[in-house]
Amino acid sequence: MELPNIEYIIKLSGNDESVKDKLISVLKYELPLEITAYYNSILLNDNNQTIFCVHKLKHKIGILGLDKGYYIAEEYENQLKENTNKMQNTFEKIIISIQNFVDFL
Question: Residue 15 — very low, low, confident or very high, per pLDDT cuts 50/70/90?
Fold first, then answer.
């Protein structure tokens, strides 16, 4: 299983500590909100909102260096558009993994 990392964040920041810290701060703020919105959309059986949430989370997954995870999120998003959710458990393992990682940044 891939492990989250901040290599892409460092690259984006140009190795500027203040920019890196700001990006991490935004990530720490937004990620739990987006994960909560995702689970709420699942509970409400709101497929359009779930697709929107997965789309947003997909980018967080990519920012945290999970190339395979990004692909899985993309596939899950496409499945949801076709009214299936075969990759839900796999996707949710990824978002748990990134949340745990971000909690310790």
Answer: confident
CA 3 to chain centre: 13
Q: Which two tokens stand for residue 105?
A: 């940044």
C-alpha span between 61 and 29 (Å, rounded): 15
Q: Which two tokens stand for residue 13?
A: 């920041």
Place of tokens 């937004």: 30
pTM: 0.93
Question: Is residue 49 within 8 Å of 37, Cβ to Cβ?
Answer: yes
Length of the chain, in residues: 105
Beta-carbon-side half-sphere exposure of residue 80 (alpha carbons within 13 Å):
23
- Distance set, CA 87 to CA 45, 61, 69 (Å): 16, 15, 11
Structure tokens at 44: 């409400």
* Phi and psi, residue 21, nearest 5°: -65, -35
Contacts (Cβ under 8 Å, ≥6 apart) of 68 = 2
